[in-house]
Amino acid sequence: MTALPDAGGSGIRGQLRVSPLDALQPIGSVSGYTAASRGRISDYVYDELCEAIRSLRLQPGASLSEPVVATWLGVSRAPVREAFTRLADQRLITVVPQVRSQVAPISMRDVSDAVFVRNSLETGAFRQAIDAHVLDLSELQGVVDLNREAFDQRDAEAFFETDEQLHRLVFSLAGVSRLWGFVRGMKVNLDRLRHLSLGVAVDNPELCTEHQAIVDALANRDEEAGMAVIHTHTHRVLTDSARLQSSFPDFFAP
């Protein structure tokens, strides 16, 4: 369980811990990757680095090097180089050949784009879900209940994960599960901002209220209510961005 301190600027800074890359636990395993599946190894390296960046386990400005990452994940340097190229193309790391590579700052332009895409696709998924002949909301309600428990316990990690599950299930109910993969892939900077704001999130009961309101709007097949709450919910992180940029100026792109 990750219990967060005070939600003010100093409290948020207090919750962040800078760890060397070799101290981080990879989220997956390289087992099953072979020399004959080089592309798959590259995907593995990319996924590990992308998730470490998304969760702020690798913070903006953190140094990266091919040999260190290769040792960390137990792979050769070639797939690491390929993963670096993909991450640089997505503006998640900056690479200066022969000099250094580091985690890129958070781009508020990318955050705004991700909010727009997420809101547009999730409201579309909501509309499609309420048109379904059969709409079983038991799993979704269960996740909302777990999210409320995480909130009550100030368990930031569980709160974030159940939040993700909740919104993924909206897409699943609409029969467009694959679109959630697209949304998640393009919202890395948004998720970095969300992780920075978790100290505020677990102090704000309106988030849980909005999660329940999404379920209720689905149950009532109430399009107007659903559109309103999803718009408010997806844009909420932007309202706190100015304070976060003030507290962590080095974390954001100018």
From TrEMBL:
Domain HTH gntR-type, chain residue ranges per copy: 39-106
Entry-linked Gene3D superfamilies: GntR ligand-binding domain-like, Winged helix-like DNA-binding domain superfamily/Winged helix DNA-binding domain
Domain of life: Bacteria
Keywords, ordered alphabetically: DNA-binding, Transcription, Transcription regulation
SMART domains, A to Z: FCD, HTH_GNTR
InterPro entries according to UniProt: GntR_C, TF_FadR/GntR_C, Tscrpt_reg_HTH_GntR, WH-like_DNA-bd_sf, WH_DNA-bd_sf
Record flagged with keyword Transcription: yes
One protein family per Pfam: FCD
Residue ranges that the Swiss-Prot or TrEMBL entry lists as coiled coil: none
Descriptive protein name: GntR family transcriptional regulator
